[in-house]
Amino acid sequence: MVFDRVIGQQPAVTALTRALRSGRVHQAYRFEGPAGVGKELTAYAFAQSLLCERGGPIGCGQCRSCERVVSLSPEPPQVPRHPDLLLIARGLYPPALLGTSQPEVAGIGIEQVRRIVLARVGYPPHEGRAVVCVIRDADELTNQAANALLKTIEEPGERMFFVLVTSRPDRLPDTIRSRTLAVRFAPLADHVVASILERNGAPTEAAAVAEGSASLALQLADPEQMAARQDFADAVLRAVAARDLAAALDLLETRSLARDRLREQLAFLAQTFAQRGRQAVAAQPGLSELAARQHRIVFGAIRSLDRFGQPALVLEAMVARLRRA
Ligand SMILES: [Zn+2]
């Protein structure tokens, strides 16, 4: 069945397939959970089930309808070819099509909601079964756009369904949250991420630092990025071993310190210490304890970054602590 492609999200899949089989499908769902764990994939499987020519309740994945839910039109805007599946995402449609002069940069604008969604309200589906609207990164809806959607989400009409996909549900207005039914998606287990990497022909090491996100793992598995993370870890280790703190900080001076990048590199470094600790645990308990302390220090640095500490200061403080560990 079409939901088989969704890996490691059994509670979410069970909730949705149960609703489909019982015929009690909510009309406005909110798929929430970390980025890259299968929320949008699940939204398409759900849409296939509602639009399948064979009548469902679960999409067959083979009919013309199911096929066009997951294939994109070759020309921009690259949206699903099924005319009853509406996809909303920031910047997806060119300004000319939305009747605006500026591309959408700040968020999903009200014009997109008007032209793509509200224009369809009250009309029957083109091909019979339903109209499904998937909103990618729904937390990017501008306030105006969210307000324009409220009434429709609350009373969508008989065969209209919404799936709002978000990895930052706390940024959605309460009014939208209270009108949508949450389906929660969890971070993927490391072995699931590893198997996804393997299937994509990528090295599986990145699974351990991807925090349960398949898309992040695929990005991290990129050879150039892997080399950059290794360079960073080597530079930190050299800095920790340098004769004094000034020399240590010199070694780090040229590092690029964008927050997200640094966070990812620190996660890799933490993993390096964790691995050392595991390897030494039997033969050299002293070394294993040191690795555990180092691991804690790097994790502390990640937490500081998450609390919006300045990247350069966080890195300097971490190296100073590692030198005393
Ligand atoms: Zn089908």
Care to give the gist of this entry?
The protein has 325 residues and is an alpha/beta fold.
Give the total of domains.
2
CATH class of the largest domain: Alpha Beta
- Oligomeric state as shown: single chain
How helix-rich are the residues, as a percent range? 40-55%
CATH superfamily descriptor of the largest domain: P-loop containing nucleotide triphosphate hydrolases
Assign an overall shape: elongated
What gyration radius follows from the Cα positions, in whole Å?
A: 24 Å
SSE order = HEHHEHHEHEHEHHHHHHH
Mean pLDDT value: 91
How much strand content do the residues show?
5-15%
What ranges have pLDDT less than 50 throughout 5 or more consecutive residues?
none
Bound molecules: zinc ion
Tell me what you see in this structure.
- There is one protein chain.
- The chain has 14 helices and 5 strands.
- The protein is α/β, with parallel strands linked by helices and 325 residues long.
- The chain has 2 domains: 2-186, P-loop containing nucleotide triphosphate hydrolases (Rossmann fold, 3-Layer(aba) Sandwich), CATH 3.40.50.300; 222-324.
- Strands 2-3-4-1-5 form a 5-stranded parallel sheet, sandwiched between helices.
- Helix 5 packs parallel to helix 6 (143-154) and helix 10 packs across helix 14.
- 38% of the residues are buried.
- The structure holds zinc ion.
- Zinc ion is lined by residues 52-54, 59-60, 62-63, 65-66.
